[in-house]
Amino acid sequence: MAVVSKLLGWRGEVEFTVDEVIDSLGLKPLENGGWGRVMAAGEGTASSGVVSVYRLLTPETWDDWRAIEVEELWTAYMGAPLEVELATEAGVRRETLTAGSGRWLTVPAGGWVRTRVVGGWCLAGRIGTDQGRPA
């Protein structure tokens, strides 16, 4: 995949393709679309335990609504912005996380969430229950 993202850092502007990010981080295809990898899991974590996950989304990756049983945290590490749509008793709202901003969005338990990338691709991070195991 030739989608390229540019990062500006202490070395100047650096470009990455989706394939380079997948290879560098050892990401695997996910059952629910995109690529991912568990970065950390609590000791003795069962399938319902809390994990920290890399999630790479492309324009072709669109999450369906899913119920949130335990609070989740989302961030966008690099690439295009990440759109997180939340549905709670208070209504539906959409938040956009700019890659590299360091901002984390809390998705409350008891609601619904879906995500999509706004152009290009996005390497996102999610802390929550274990979902979307590599295929």
Task: List the defining traits of the structure above.
single chain; 52% strand; mainly beta; 6% helix; 12 strands; globular; 135 residues; four-stranded antiparallel sheet; Jelly Rolls; six-stranded antiparallel sheet
Count of helical regions: 1
CATH architecture descriptor text: Sandwich
Instruction: Kindly provide the name of the CATH class.
Output: Mainly Beta
Percent range of helical residues: under 10%
Summarize the biggest pleated sheet: 6 strands, antiparallel
Any idea what the shape is? Answer: globular
Structural class: mainly beta
- Termini gap: 19 Å
Radius of gyration, in Å, reads 15 Å
How would you summarize this macromolecular structure in one to three sentences?
The chain is mostly beta strands and 135 residues long. It has 1 helix and 12 strands, in the order E-E-H-E-E-E-E-E-E-E-E-E-E.
Characterise this structure.
Mean pLDDT is about 85; it is low at about 5-10. This protein starts with a strand and ends in a 6-residue tail after the last strand. It has a single domain (about 30-130), classed as Jelly Rolls (Sandwich). It contains 1 helix and 12 strands. It has about 140 residues and is mainly β. Helices cover about 5% and strands about 50% of the residues. Strand 1 (about 5-10) and strand 2 (about 10-15) form a beta hairpin.
